[in-house]
Amino acid sequence: MKRSNHRRAPWGCGIVLGVALAGCGGGGGSSAGGTAAPSAVPPLGAGQHGDGTFYAATGAGSCSYDASPDDLMVAAINRPQYAGSHSCGLCADVTGPRGTVRVRIVDVCPECATGDLDLSREAFAAIADPAAGRVPIEWTPAACDVTGPIALRFKEGSSQWWLAVQVRNSRLPILRIELQTPAGFVELSQQDYNYALEDGDPGAGPYTFRITALGGEQIEETGMPLRPGEEVAGTQQFH
């Protein structure tokens, strides 16, 4: 959803002109690739500070994840540190006046300044009184507490001529995804909506992907079948 003449409400960016929206990122991204450098993603353990607000988060958003009604410890990150969707899936320990909570980045907050996070209402209530609306926060990127291997989700419409793929259930945010071809590994084009795109006739699969996490750790997943609109379980997880 494209926003125009956006006016930020004092309690966060989830309510605009009296209308509740899905999140700061509007639930979708542009079709263009991300323009921010992956280096804009704050590294694990590097302390950040800014303002914390809240919105009516569902777990869905610009990162193209599914809604997660059973896990609403989520947040939208400011546009500079969104880094063209490279921060999607990053976890962070956020501290406010009332305490600390761990959240997962699922969306982007376009009007937030660098260092700001727009939390779900539930996450904000764990660190501050919601009546405050906006509070100073400190936060530290952290590895996510996931179980099992990563999964790859193929975007709807993926085929032997065009595919887009997204990593899910990862302990670490993803730096790049590469597809093995007869000529070697080819890096897919990361999109602002958190899919990596190959539109040069990738073939019908099964595929081998080389996945690099923030920090440089790599895993390879082989024999991945093409299943548009579905998640395919991998065999490995980042440390």
Strand and helix map with partners:
Blueprint: E1 15-16, E2 19-20, E3 48-55, E4 74-78, H1 79-82, E5 91-95, E6 100-109, E7 117-120, H2 121-127, E8 135-142, E9 151-154, E10 163-168, E11 174-181, E12 184-187, E13 189-190, E14 196-198, E15 207-213, E16 218-224, E17 231-233
Parallel strand pairs: 3-7, 4-6
Antiparallel strand pairs: 1-2, 3-8, 4-7, 5-6, 5-8, 9-10, 9-17, 10-14, 11-12, 11-15, 13-14, 15-16
Short synopsis of the structure:
Helices cover 5% and strands 37% of the residues.
Series of secondary-structure elements, N-terminal to C-terminal:
EEEEHEEEHEEEEEEEEEE
Beta-strand content estimate: 35-45%
What is the overall shape?
A: elongated
In DSSP terms (H or I, runs of 4 or more residues), the helix count works out at: 2
How does this structure look, described?
The chain is mainly beta and 239 residues long. It has 2 helices and 17 strands. The protein has helices at residues 79-82, 121-127; strands spanning 15-16, 19-20, 48-55, 74-78, 91-95, 100-109, 117-120, 135-142, 151-154, 163-168, 174-181, 184-187, 189-190, 196-198, 207-213, 218-224, 231-233. The strands form 4 sheets. Strands 3-7-4-6-5-8 form a 6-stranded mixed beta barrel. The chain has a 5-stranded antiparallel beta sheet with strand order 13-14-10-9-17, with no helix packed on it. It has a 4-stranded antiparallel beta sheet with strand order 12-11-15-16, with no helix packed on it. Strand 9 and strand 10 (163-168) form a beta hairpin. The longest helix is centred in the middle third of the chain and has 7 residues, at 121-127. The protein is elongated, with a radius of gyration of 18 Å. The N and C termini lie far apart (36 Å). Residues 1-35 have low confidence and may be disordered.
